[in-house]
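Human: Respectfully, please carefully check these tokens:
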Amino acid sequence: MREVGFAANRRLLDVQQLSHDCHVGATTFQHLQSPLVVDGQRASALRFGDDTVQALLQALLVLSILSPAFKQKELKERLAQLLGLDPSTMTQGKMTYQLRRLRLHGFIERLPRKHRYRVTTFGLRVALFYTRTYVSLLRPGLSQIVSAQPPGDTRLRSHFDKATEAIEQWCREAKLAA
């Protein structure tokens, strides 16, 4: 029991450590936005705002905390739940596609002689970056700056409106001078 508890605690501490240091460079980010070919196998892009990608990465985060390795079935159940689908609607072909996509992009690795996968450190870092940025920054920020509420209702909206006005003013002045 002590070994199991220690292993679970170590995985949780690894996730917490990475969550405070989840920087992804511009090159890596652009690389993930494009499809790639590795050893003749094509993998589609992991686009930042895509609902399926966000759900897939959230599922990876949960699975990395629950156990050191996971099966396709476990990923399927988590992914279906996050997408609001019945797991029976997700075929084996769809799951194989997602697993190959994650493996070729370096998010997971298959354990030798087993039908289990492990989340890589790179995969954990990028999954944390994608999900935290999307959930904590992008969605709430966009809702503030494009909401139907009158301008100035939030601090971000106020600053965004000032920046927009400054840009528009600069464009008007540049056209007058030209």
User: Anything to note?
Assistant: Strands lie at 36-38, 41-43, 108-110, 117-119. DSSP finds seven helices and four strands in the chain. The chain has two domains: 2-146, 147-178.
